[in-house]
Design goal:
2 domains; 284 residues; 6 helices; Lipocalin; disordered C terminus; elongated; eight-stranded antiparallel beta barrel; alpha+beta; disordered N terminus
Length: 284
């Protein structure tokens, strides 16, 4: 049976229609839509996503009577951009996250182990899956980003829910999502998972051999997001001016903080742990 099915699959892959001629790159909408800069300058609690510590895993399962001849896959987004606005009235808060489609990873070994995927696709299969994902499914040459917007927060004893809107290509889909949240002076950590229909995102799951081998419509999304307090660069400078009014020791410490901040790679924003801001209060 295997000798029969595998040649059939190869034939199907070879006979897949070629992608349509590339359309012009779509003009991206303004991002972020919310003015986090203005909120930060007004002294509101604004956090920046820590890209190195955050990730979104998308697990895609195989299905159909011949599913044993296919593979489950995991797509990893671990170069996220994002902002979180978390005021005292949480319901007014929001977050915006952007994923660069070309930076998506397919089947890194650590992710396959993390989700206990029971097959090991070879390098060719992984590259073929990624190529099809970027070119035929997400059309990365035209649609550069996937965006996620979080609004209508509802908090209760460490649990939270929010209205989460996904924009994939031209399709906008929103649904309420529950997650765990831990907020302290130095960070916000959000963990959770959900099942999402590809059809709701305007995507058509792959199907072959009359549906005997196909990709499940439902995908599993696992997320871990860590955001840290953020101040605008000129806001930090203002704090340095205030510090000059304090003791000489305090001013020296603030200068050290500002010097370290200037060496950070970000051009417009600096992420500064909350405890460092204590130096901004002048001594008596």
């Amino acid at each position: 049976m295997r000798r029969l099915v595998l040649p059939l699959l190869l034939l199907l892959v070879a006979c897949q229609p070629r992608p349509a001629p590339q359309a012009p790159i779509s003009k991206p909408q303004q991002w972020p839509a919310f003015d986090f800069e203005q909120a930060a300058n007004a002294g509101e609690p604004v956090y920046r996503l820590n890209s190195a510590a955050s990730r979104i895993d998308i697990v895609v399962r195989r299905s159909g009577s011949l599913a044993r001849f296919g593979h489950d896959h995991v797509i990893v987004a671990d170069t996220l951009e994002g902002w979180v606005f978390w005021p005292d009235v949480a319901e007014a808060g929001r977050a915006e996250i952007r994923i660069w489609v070309e930076q998506l990873k397919v089947d890194p070994l650590d992710a396959r182990l993390r989700h206990a995927l029971d097959t090991r696709p070879n390098a060719g299969a992984v590259e073929g899956t990624r190529s099809n994902l970027l070119k035929a499914v997400l059309e990365s040459s035209r649609w550069l980003h996937i965006t996620i917007t979080v609004t209508e927060l509802n908090l209760m004893r460490g649990k939270a829910s929010a209205l989460v809107a996904f924009i994939v290509k031209e399709v906008h889909h929103a649904e309420r999502v529950s997650f765990d949240v831990n907020r302290n002076p130095n960070s916000i950590t959000i963990n959770g998972q959900l099942s999402l229909s590809q059809a709701n995102l305007g995507l058509e799951p792959f199907s072959a051999l009359g549906g005997r081998l196909q990709v499940s419509d439902a995908v599993e999304i696992h997320f871990r997001l860590i955001a840290e307090p953020t101040l605008m660069a000129h806001h930090i400078s203002t704090l340095g001016t205030v510090a000059v009014q304090g003791s000489r020791k305090h001013c020296t410490e603030m200068e050290a903080i500002l010097s370290a901040a200037e060496r950070l790679p970000n051009e417009n924003y600096f992420s500064v742990p909350r405890y460092l801001l204590d130096f901004a209060l002048p001594y008596e």
